[in-house]
Design goal:
This protein is mostly helical. The chain has one domain. Helix content is 69%, strand content 0%. Helix 2 crosses helix 4 and helix 4 runs parallel beside helix 7.
Length: 233
């Protein structure tokens, strides 16, 4: 087995390259808007719906998924765009999880600090439910969850099911808003905005109730019991 520091070095290099690429795109103004992403896929013609999900997976490594979901709304409308965007979000989550798992190698499950390993326990013990909850909580970026899951023993099936269920409401919101950019006062846009606010409030309330604002706090859900102290002999 290769040394642990080799896996850590790979992850650090990957993270640094990603930050540089995203930062360069942001500073140069080359991160596309939903309309620009729409125009790109629209140029593909009949292949657009077929290639949308694979393109979503690749581009999501450097562009936030809400932009791509909004492009689906602009391209295909809310009814057809929502399932396509949801498939894209799920496939991208699995791809990012696979990258992190590949970088970790044989050391997955042993790279996180001891206190942070409580997150792994929560993920592996609760599976799809834990992923679904992570998609609901508003303060947890999807990418962070995806990559972190790759460093644990969470099954891919749990990531897929949890993302499909937990991400569906937010995907609908961004897809509906993307499809209504030219008229944010339309009933569809207003429903999406209301749902967006409700999801944020519900996620914040859920986070506060379940973890007290800190998923790593002592006694939080999925936290393993502290080992009992044994008297010295």
């Amino acid at each position: 087995m290769e040394p642990r520091r080799v896996a850590i070095r790979r992850i650090a290099v990957y993270a640094a390259v990603t930050v540089v690429v995203v930062g360069t795109l942001a500073l140069t103004g080359n991160i596309p808007s939903s309309s620009k992403a729409r125009d790109f896929v629209d140029d593909l013609g009949a292949l657009g719906p077929v290639l949308y999900v694979p393109l979503f997976v690749v581009v999501n490594f450097v562009i936030a998924w809400p932009i791509l979901a909004g492009a689906a709304g602009l391209l295909f409308g809310t009814a057809a765009g929502t399932p396509l965007a949801l498939l894209g979000v799920t496939a991208a989550a699995l791809a990012q999880m696979a990258v992190a798992r590949r970088l970790a190698g044989d050391h997955r499950g042993r790279l996180l600090p001891r206190r942070t390993r409580r997150v792994e326990n929560f993920l592996t013990e609760n599976g799809a439910v834990a992923v679904m909850e992570s998609r609901i909580v508003p303060v947890l970026p999807y990418g962070l969850v995806n990559y972190s899951a790759g460093l644990t023993h969470l099954p891919y099936s749990a990531m897929a099911v949890g993302t499909l269920i937990g991400a569906a409401p937010k995907v609908f919101v961004y897809t509906a808003l993307g499809g209504s950019l030219d008229d944010l006062t339309s009933p569809e846009a207003l429903v999406a905005l209301v749902l967006w606010v409700l999801l944020g409030l519900a996620g914040a309330a859920f986070l506060w109730r379940q973890t007290g604002g800190n998923p790593l706090r002592h006694g939080g859900p999925g936290t393993p019991p502290e080992p009992s102290a044994r008297p010295q002999r």
